[in-house]
Design goal:
InterPro entries: Cyt_c/ubiquinol_Oxase_su3, Cyt_c_oxidase-like_su3, Cyt_c_oxidase_su3-like_sf, Cyt_c_oxidase_su3_a-hlx. By secondary structure, the chain is mostly helical. 77% of the residues lie in helices and 0% in strands. The longest helix is centred in the middle third of the chain and has 31 residues, at 84-114.
Length: 191
């Protein structure tokens, strides 16, 4: 009986992106720790600020990002099965979910600006705006990455065993999703 060689494990996607993801998670982690520390120092201020936040749009945004994550996983599955058109459609749905997130978050941020809320309003609003705008920019970058993969997929480039770019885009998108779930829980839900 002949033994088969053990399968070699590999990190999906590009290693440089994983380093970038870890660095971004560290930055957000420091931001979240600073938020938690400031919240502990000024609980009444943070409670009042959170009381001015609606949960409807952020909850819908959470669902949109989760839908984008599901769609990019479906794209990976489709490309793995050699189904190019389906893979591109799933990537397009990821972009649609991301665009919906940006539209709703932009609407929310404009509403805060119209109310006169700025980075200097108080410490809660400084954290709220800094965290949500920083995350907003990460969603934009995620959409640029997914759009590039969608564009490159038009010639059938992604096949089983040759999907590094799709895996890289998925890893980044999931990081953006994870950060939002933490931000949503910390800033919007935890009272």
């Amino acid at each position: 009986m002949e033994l088969s060689a053990p399968q070699q494990r590999r990190v999906p996607g590009d290693l440089a992106m994983w380093c970038f993801i870890l660095a971004e998670l560290a930055v957000f982690g420091v931001f979240f720790l600073a938020y938690a520390w400031a919240r502990r120092q000024q609980p009444a201020l943070f409670a009042a600020g959170q009381g001015g936040l609606e949960l409807g749009l952020p909850t819908l945004n959470t669902l949109l990002l989760l839908a984008g994550s599901a769609a990019i996983l479906a794209a990976l599955s489709a490309f793995s099965a050699g189904r190019q058109r389906a893979g591109r459609r799933w990537l397009a749905l990821t972009l649609l979910a991301g665009g919906g997130f940006l539209a709703l978050k932009g609407y929310e941020l404009v509403g805060k600006a119209v109310q006169g809320i700025t980075l200097s309003s108080n410490e809660f609003w400084m954290f709220y705006l800094s965290l949500t705008v920083f995350h907003f920019l990460h969603v934009v970058l995620g959409m640029v990455i997914v759009a590039a993969v969608w564009w490159l997929a038009r010639d059938g480039r992604y096949q089983p065993g040759a999907m590094d770019e799709v895996e890289t885009a998925a890893a980044y998108w999931h990081m953006v999703d994870l950060v939002w779930l933490l931000l949503f829980a910390l800033v919007y839900v935890a009272r």
